[in-house]
Write a structure and sequence with these properties.
Length: about 280
């Protein structure tokens, strides 16, 4: 296995970048699949696929939301000699009513899971809950820095999972045979409301951060007023909908099952991120 590089698509992202680091620490050859990588990999430019896949036997697929590219990519990977794929999917793929009818990410994950399961390759599917890192390096960070998290999430809770844990499960699936044919649902050890989330962050950072629940309509109107295309604003509102409908509070045992240890708590994540300066201006 170590004679061939493992291709990590999305190799500079929250999960991909951590998987690259963890594989590197194990001494496993890694190829970073990104538009800035060498060779360059771009989901939307199929002419870059072959060079990125060349010589790889195992691949992490971090899908390109909004376009059904996983299936043709898997097909090409198989043609070029890839033997194992690990797919980063999403929670709720098989739960009726979880994603809105217009959810681009939902369609991407549903089609992607079907593609890998029927590819004839060794496969593992990883379905994480909301990333804890969304608050420290993702689309909620600016709101945290601004002191106000305005979302249409009501008083629902979510079992946020640390991206380090997601990457560790991915690495285990890429390197260990016991994970082939498994679907891992990943979450943190407890579910928190957004009021509880901002309290944890405030306590750890000394910042005053508050959560302001909005209706989906008001949320979309605010984003459109800030210059967002309406379709993008509605897609964002839909993505938060499962929290509001209390469909993201369930706990999953995937981290424990795959790694033999419990997942890190949200408070542990926040303390580490705060110590690393995640919320310094």
């Amino acid at each position: 296995m170590t004679e061939h590089p493992i291709l990590i698509t999305g190799g500079t992202g929250k999960v991909g970048g951590r998987a690259v680091a963890q594989l590197g620490a194990l001494g496993v050859p890694v190829r970073v699949g990104s538009r800035s990588g060498e060779p360059r990999f771009d989901w939307t430019d199929r002419s870059t696929w072959d060079a990125a896949l060349d010589g790889a036997k195992r691949v992490l697929i971090v899908p390109h939301d909004g376009e059904l590219l996983t299936r043709p990519f898997v097909r090409r990977a198989k043609e070029l000699g890839v033997e194992r794929v690990v797919l980063l999917s999403g929670r709720g793929v098989d739960v009726p009513g979880y994603a809105g009818e217009g959810s681009t990410a939902g369609r991407t994950h549903i089609d992607g899971e079907d593609a890998v399961r029927h590819s004839g390759l060794q496969w593992t599917v990883v379905r994480p809950a909301w990333f804890a890192q969304n608050f420290s390096e993702g689309f909620f960070r600016d709101a945290v820095l601004g002191g106000e998290l305005r979302l249409p999430a009501g008083d629902g809770a979510a079992s946020f999972v640390d991206a380090e844990d997601i990457a560790a499960v991915v690495v285990a699936a890429l390197t260990g045979d016991e994970h082939v044919g498994r679907t891992y649902e990943l979450s943190g050890p407890s579910a928190l409301t957004l009021d509880e989330v901002v309290t944890v962050i405030s306590d750890a950072t000394g910042r005053t951060v508050r959560y302001v629940p909005l209706s989906p309509e008001d949320f979309v109107a605010e984003l459109v007023g800030a210059g967002w295309p309406r379709a993008d604003a509605e897609d964002y509102a839909d993505s938060v909908g499962p929290i509001r409908r209390d469909m993201d509070s369930q706990l999953s045992d995937g981290v424990q099952t795959a790694l033999g240890r419990p997942p890190r708590s949200f408070a542990q994540f926040v303390r580490g991120a705060a110590a690393a300066g995640a919320w310094r201006d």
